[in-house]
Amino acid sequence: MNTVDPDLAAMMDDVFSDYRETHVGAAPGTRIAYDRALWRRLDSLGLVRLTGAEESGGSAASWFEAAELLSAASRHGVRIPLAEHDLLACWLLDAAGFPVDDAVRTVYVVPADGHAAVPAPWAGDVDRVVMVWQDNDRYRLADLDTEELSLTAGTNLIGEPRDTIHVDTSALAGTVVPTELACRLSRKSAMIRAIQVCAALDRAVALSIEHVASRVQFGRPLAKFQAIQNLISDAAAEAALARAATEVALRAAIETDWTSSLLDFRIATARSCAGHAASVVTRNAHQVHGAIGTTHEHRLHEYTRAALAWRSEYGSVRFWDDRVAAAAVAAGGQGLWPLIAAG
């Protein structure tokens, strides 16, 4: 984001760039365990609790800096639960008045009765899980030790832990928290994945541009072929649209403390654009790379598979498309343009 200090952004990028120079990405199909040594380094730089309050051990940065940090990690294919720890779990504890220690955390929203269980990110690898569940017309929160929970291990498309938690909330006391806190958690979770998808798509487009500029076919650089130019331009346009929609939503969220009346529409638009962009960028990027782009040795798949995995978390593409459509219908013919054009 353009509001982040350039030196801070460069430092964030350098940390993950240096790490990837000496560490190979996980093979497809394997479960990723985040690097504890990298976590300690990030902690020493004040990046693990980047947005946390200073009085609770955080660095008191904004979501602009957090978005830059998530983007840097995504650009370099580094898988680590920064977002789940800082922006979701520890934020919830701070907001609810709970103490925050050095334990690594994730967050889990228990599905309502009759809904299928949604896997919790990194649950089997962290120290504690901040759990939120609905109790009649109110919400409760508990900070639980992972060893106390019954888990079924799983992963997403890129091997990040996505573990199913089996829990009987009737056996938990929990602390009542405002409904608005649960609503903000939902918005923040969706925003995190939009930011990560956009960063992955931007990197896939950049790799594609580098490839076609350097690869020669029939005596000409691939970039000189009109068909290739069309594929690249379509991918770049979709990635730019997703990024623009996400930046608009993020700015609205930050400026209104996540309470804008249009924020749900902004986030739904960002997630819808990012979800559809993932399809176009993935298809076009692999097409211009040809066979080399399907190999494990080439890094393209680290970004295309990541975008496809993240776009389906905290709401599917269909879910966000329906949200956008419902908002448009509710606005009506006279209200549609003001809905789209409002800042």
UniProtKB/TrEMBL annotation:
<keyword id="KW-0560">Oxidoreductase</keyword>
<dbReference type="InterPro" id="IPR037069">
    <property type="entry name" value="AcylCoA_DH/ox_N_sf"/>
</dbReference>
<dbReference type="Pfam" id="PF00441">
    <property type="entry name" value="Acyl-CoA_dh_1"/>
</dbReference>
<keyword id="KW-0274">FAD</keyword>
<keyword id="KW-0285">Flavoprotein</keyword>
<feature type="domain" description="Acyl-CoA dehydrogenase/oxidase C-terminal">
    <location>
        <begin position="193"/>
        <end position="311"/>
    </location>
</feature>
<dbReference type="InterPro" id="IPR009100">
    <property type="entry name" value="AcylCoA_DH/oxidase_NM_dom_sf"/>
</dbReference>
<protein>
    <submittedName>
        <fullName>Acyl-CoA dehydrogenase</fullName>
    </submittedName>
</protein>
<dbReference type="InterPro" id="IPR009075">
    <property type="entry name" value="AcylCo_DH/oxidase_C"/>
</dbReference>
<dbReference type="InterPro" id="IPR036250">
    <property type="entry name" value="AcylCo_DH-like_C"/>
</dbReference>
<comment type="similarity">
    <text>Belongs to the acyl-CoA dehydrogenase family.</text>
</comment>
